[in-house]
Design a protein that fits this description.
This protein is an alpha+beta fold and 168 residues long. The chain has helices spanning 22-32, 38-47, 94-100, 116-124, 136-141, and strands at 20-21, 53-55, 61-64, 84-90, 102-103, 110-112, 129-135, 147-148, 154-156, 158-159, 164-166.
């Protein structure tokens, strides 16, 4: 939450690329929540299944790899995605998604996966999962850009309904 949505909850500020000093984060978390050791933080980063966090090359800073609802620029370069990406959602959202496409809502990007298993897991978080396939070549032909985050989540601004297909 702190590194993606509410840095003020720990009394910290993120730089323009979403980084903050690890010591500042630990101090802020200790003052506003519960103490967290650097060892525990590093274990969380290393064992996080989704690889949500990145440590800077110097080892002194941390940031979320993607999923921000606050304005940061991760410095990602446009990349060519696989021909098909996946998006998992709950069945109760399906009618709206098929009519309106995928929108980033309060996030900076729509999140897509190259892994069917990941899409199923994401959809399961919100109810009965359904998986949509994304026609990436059609989106690219229409001028949509794709980015791949440090943890291999594919990002784009939106996915038009015409580029979505419900998996059988």
């Amino acid at each position: 939450m702190v590194l993606r949505h509410q840095p003020e909850a720990a009394g910290i500020q993120l730089d323009a690329q979403g980084w903050c000093d690890i010591d500042d984060l630990l101090q802020g978390v200790a003052q506003h929540h519960a103490p967290l050791s650097k060892e525990t933080l590093m274990e969380i980063v290393a064992t996080n299944e989704k690889k949500r966090f990145a440590i800077s090359d110097c080892g002194q800073r941390i940031r979320a790899s993607q999923g921000h609802s606050i304005g940061v620029s991760l410095g990602l370069q446009a990349a060519t995605p696989p021909a098909t990406l996946y998006h998992g959602t709950a069945s109760r959202f399906l009618d709206s998604v098929l009519q309106n496409g995928l929108q980033k809502q309060s996030r900076q990007h729509v999140h897509l996966s190259a892994s069917l298993d990941t899409a199923i897991a994401v959809g399961s978080r919100h109810g009965k999962p359904v998986v949509l396939t994304i026609d990436c070549p059609a989106m690219q032909a229409a001028g949509h850009l794709f980015y791949c985050s440090e943890n291999d989540v594919w990002l784009t601004d939106s996915v038009p309904a015409a580029c979505l297909r419900l998996m059988d």
